[in-house]
């Protein structure tokens, strides 16, 4: 849904939600009465009603008999947000050889036991995905597939899928020619191919700090050097620091998540995204925009990608269905800008093509399965679960713990007291059957030693609550 | 089927087939009578009968009323086999920076038009695959798949599929622990990962001359240098030349196809494979064994891979279902020997996993779909079509043309008179709606300028015959 098609009450609901998130409306506090809100904000009473119903549905407010609406209690003693790492990290970016894989693999290995509480997982619960409906799309599309497609669709990609993806870009306000789209084996392959299209071993690549750990692994694999740019937990990449690095260093590419950054959940504002584009455009440094959480924004207004400002193909925009629909189908894509042809050729030399049946199934699902309806349900579930984890953290974690307030996705980033060693925490928690993602795996320089990323992508239950309590007990021992 | 389970009549049929193939029994010639054969070869008359029925079924001989069996006429004026390139190429191998991609892409581009006669294609006709049966396996397995599999199967691979593949190895006489198996996005990804596991940019890799063009592209992409080892059109890699190169040069890995080599169709004998293994073992140089045509042998006796002699994990054996069952499903694997763990990690950093539904569908098909029955039909079809193309070439191509006689697969390698420029031939043929794979795309040094690979993987029809005639007319203009 774009701004223009957004209903007035949805917009108003988003404004109230933002006030709740940033603490202006505290838990337990009464939200403005319908009459008051209508008068103050110049909207009709029915708009306010509709907005409050929506917010109730999203789990942010609740009605009390004869007293009106109140912000839900679940975050009664909310933890503070982390300070910006900009103020705490080194002011001048350095370049670093990356060597973090061993650590990452030991964390990933910990997730293999299905009995473990999956706070360390990279995916939401598979039970949140419409897998049965998707299976019907799969059965239908393999039955109807003309035999020659099993060969032809390998080079070009499934034409229906490409059209559906291009359509979703168009609806989101990004115009792009279909031949800019390369379908890939998930976003991970897209990111690998983009990076290889614009770098050679030894080159410098600007990444975020903290960064998605696979970013670090890929850099390590391709023998690239990382220039870590600090990320503000709410506002995203520190542009001043980036400008400084671009000035001083021969950076060959940037790999950033401009919305719902992993692990911080930060989303850059539209103005900031535009400024980022102009900065990169000035230096003619390509941007690899990793936007795999794009569909998981809370509320009603999708964040715009940096790609929407791209006027000369400098941005490679990578997306995927792995976080929003079907992880194991392994279907992602890149809108590759001026690098699309090169990316496509590299793909032919590495994996040739993503699975043809998976492409066809998703194409069918996008057309007939009700993707947007599913996404609305998914976003609501994730937002509710975020509230539950935040409230639980406030109950069980040390009071000086800080935690992010992402406006989407299924990750929270916790900054524990300095004395906490999150690698040790990881081991102790694992011994209790709880996984988590310790801070150092998100850094080329092993920073964030007192931080951890926790996944709230699984339906919240008594087991989750007990796990948080256990983590709290372990944290108290440091 | 292994030697031990092979029936006596099948073995006898294979011996007769070999005599036909190598010209001892010429087209039109009478094959020994049942009584004679029974006496001479010490087998029962019923064994001879069964063998002759099988050979008739395979299209190699035909019965004439009251006269016995005759070798089929379709290759009445057979073209000669090519000379060994060993005698003609440079004696000392040189190392070469590879730069062939542009040429390959222009050839691949030519295949996009579905109206083109696909002699240049890398795949057999999709109509030879049991796609409808496979679609049923797909529908079934996505319906029955537990939701957690859509995430869990990404790291380990589908457990049923791994077991089925390990079982096929076992039946073929190769014992390997299941954890040596890494499921990949087709063999192409497996080959890429193997190569990256044992080399760094700038390293030397021994490859075949002529080699599968993707080998050259992958070397180019990874900035590796090729050491071209000549391949005998019937007996495969020239071991003397390889031994010489291993002695002189710091070769880090070999990438060879020991059976049904692409493009020559050469298959090394078992003794030669054993000798190859011992040679590499002596130098401790790992072998990447590209064995994607393994299932497409004619007759009844599967070739053994070099992997079957591997006693300490030096061989990475790469296979795939893309040539024998379902190209676009993108499911391959590698039995990675001592490099399996490293390969598996590299995969997690590049594509994470092949498509989970495709893995499940193929696992179900292997268990319930009748893969071996399908393979027998497929082999028969390909062998018949080889006969048809050989006969057609003898009718239409210059008499001094030489052509290989592979014992499996769906490629023939033509060596035209020296004056023929196959790149020009490619252009002229394409203008007539016929594709082919010109020799130079199979060489890092642009050799084989008078050669071409033709695909007979498509059911032979009047259009194929006309296309061969047209090629003959073009060849006559050189």
Automatic annotation (TrEMBL), chains A, B:
It comes from the Bacteria. It holds the Pfam family Aminotran_1_2. Gene3D superfamilies: Aspartate Aminotransferase, domain 1 (3.90.1150.10), Type I PLP-dependent aspartate aminotransferase-like (Major domain) (3.40.640.10), Winged helix-like DNA-binding domain superfamily/Winged helix DNA-binding domain (1.10.10.10). Transmembrane segments: none annotated. Keywords: Aminotransferase, DNA-binding, Pyridoxal phosphate, Transcription, Transcription regulation, Transferase. Residues 6-74 form the HTH gntR-type domain. GO terms for molecular function: DNA binding; DNA-binding transcription factor activity; pyridoxal phosphate binding; transaminase activity. PROSITE patterns: HTH_GNTR (PS50949). The keyword Transcription applies. In the C-terminal section; belongs to the class-I pyridoxal-phosphate-dependent aminotransferase family. This is Transcriptional regulator, GntR family. It comes from Pseudomonas kuykendallii.
